[in-house]
Amino acid sequence: MKTHPPARQEAWPRCPEASEYFSTLFRAFAAHNPAIAALSDRLLTNAGVPLKNLVDHWSVPPTHSLWMELDEIGLRRVATADGDAAWEHPAARLPRVRIEDGSPVRMAIAVDDLQLFADCQALPSRGQHGDPDSGYEEIRYPQDSGELAVLVRRGYLGFRAGHCSPGEVRALNGVRQALRARDRSSDPAEIEERLPARLAAMADDVGRDRLVDEFFAAERDYYMRSNSAARWQYGRQQEMGIGWANHDHHTYRSSRSAFRALIRLWLQLGFEPREKFYAGAEAGWGAQILEHPVSRVVLFCDVDMAPHEIGIEFADEALPDLPSVGTIGLWCGLHGESIGQAGLHHLEAEFDFARVREQLKAAGHGVMPPFTDLPMLKQAFTEPETWSVPVERASAQYERGLITAEQRNHFIERGAPGSHLEILQRWEGFKGFNKTGIDAIIRETDARNAKT
User: Long-range CB contacts (< 8 A, 24+ apart) of 398-403?
Assistant: First the structure.
């Protein structure tokens, strides 16, 4: 049966007026609240993460012209599933705004673990709204001028305190255990049949939106096992109590034979297709980007691609074998599918680019030259982790005529590039990607070109 994805947006605008509105709001809030300024400094110094990147929403009291101001910078009034109103920008990566009578100006930041953040920042944990492990937890801290709210979202976009019964806690624990122990083989039947069926059953137990957050938390944990730069950076962010709350996107590499099943899996979980990439005939690869409307997880799914295939719906059509193997296909041939044994090719998170790059380098984690250096976007990979390659995988690529005997021996003896951490900084609310610069870095990290 054919799927019918919603209309996709292929190009994302720069939104300087909206971005400046939130930057001005943040600067004023920090200027009037020394504790917020100090927290901002600690995050930058200790983790390279700007505090304003963690802002989930602002609550502000109404003024005579506020609605007009929000409308003029592109924000639109929307209703949550609970019927609560918020203002958001439909095409930018920016916080939402709530207008509340009698409310002080409140900056609400999102973290992964409320109790951990409170402990790390020496803040009291009393006065929590929402049960632990529920869809929405929040603690509010009065400031000299306004309030700081710290919250955790799990598969929920509203603003009401969550509830979690003992039965729901048991179901969540069962799902978490199953996700972390799942079969990560690249067996086609696992990817096409068994995993979708198990995830459908888990969604029945905890809800589809909640399952998405739990699934990618487990995926990040698996990825970090084999990426030392990510482990080091995560450790610093955990010391600040934020976890991976600054994640930008997760990148999955797929063989051509598994790509349709991978895209169908994401659609099953509620993801919506966004733009497609094709890096050109010389590069030989492309990508489908998807975004989840509730969890805000963004996926970048890479695959070897022929020129005419950019226009097809990947969930509907299988991709036949090509006569040669590209960067993505070779990576999967040597390491396995990202959805399977290999795990994420990279996790990308938002940082103060220059600061975190120097911090990573000082800790011994090399950073490659930026492959994007634009007014609204800057991106770079850490140096790739070198992963060992099983003899049978390298030999299979050789026997199919996809690599030379010399390349096979090199991979067996020295390994091949595995995963990266990607560091990113965005400006002007831009939520898109660089369709040209990324081609060069993909070719540079091709296993056949790497010096390992």
Answer: 402/324, 402/325, 402/329, 402/330, 402/333, 403/325, 403/330, 403/448
CB 108 within 8 A of CB 56: yes
Q: How far apart are CA 232 and CA 365, in angstroms?
A: 9
The whole domain housing 108 covers 16-153
User: Could you give the CA distance from residue 427 to residue 257 in angstroms, rounded to a whole number?
Assistant: 37
Residue 1: pLDDT above 60? no
Domain assignment present for 9: no
pLDDT tens track for 98-142? 999 988 999 999 999 999 999 999 999 889 999 999 999 999 999
C-alpha to C-alpha distance for 350 and 153, rounded to whole angstroms: 18
| Residue 256 in tokens | 């051509």
pLDDT in tens, 240-256: 999 999 999 999 999 99
Q: Which residue, of 107, 126, 153, is where some domain finishes?
A: 153
Assess whether pLDDT exceeds 70 at residue 450: no
Q: How many other C-beta atoms can be found within 10 angstroms of the C-beta atom of residue 270?
A: 18
